Amino acid sequence: MRGAVYPRVIAAGRGRRPLFDLGLGEILLIGVVILVFVGPDRIPELMSVAGRYYAKLRRLSDDLRRAFNAEVARVEADKRRDELEGRRKDAEAKLAAQRAEREANARAAAEQESANPSRPMPEGAVSRDPAGPAPESPNPLVPATPDPPPARDE
Q1: CA torsion sign, 138 to 139 to 140 to 142?
Q2: Phi, psi of 126 (to 5 degrees)
Q3: What's the pTM value of the predicted model, to 2 decimals?
């Protein structure tokens, strides 16, 4: 694409065409006209002024290029920020939906458990009954709750 946009500049850099489509004869003609109208004693001063204006033009061009690049970078950063913000909101929405689904499943399980109390509780589940079921002994031969000691007659 670079070759398509700036074909003359690239061709001039390769030696195919002179800069600004000026040949050697045209450049010599311009030099002679400047020599005749300006004079040999003022040519260095003219070249100095032309150099200063060229440097100023170059600085302005560089500033414009930097400002353009900074603006492009800002726009791209804003686009990336907006994209990341959208992804974050999507992730938060998915997490909220999963959380709500888990809570709904837990409520449904609790309602089902309270509606069907005869069903045995799954292993490791904790009863919501404040008194709670009688603790089971790990050894089936030993009762979970010991018998009270016999009363003494004194």
Answers
A1: negative
A2: -105, 135
A3: 0.42
Give the tokens for residue 124.
């490791």
Distance between CA 109 and CA 132 in Å, rounded?
19
Instruction: Tell me the domain boundaries of the chain.
Output: 1-39, 41-115
Whole-number percent of the chain with pLDDT over 90:
48
Here the tokens at position 143 are 């009762």
For 72, what's the count of Cα atoms within 13 Å in the CB-facing half-sphere? 6
Residue 43: Cβ within 10 Å count: 13
Per the structure block, which two tokens stand in for 88? 């974050």
Condensed to tens digits (0 to 9), the pLDDT of residues 103-146 reads 999 999 888 888 776 656 666 655 555 555 555 656 666 555 65
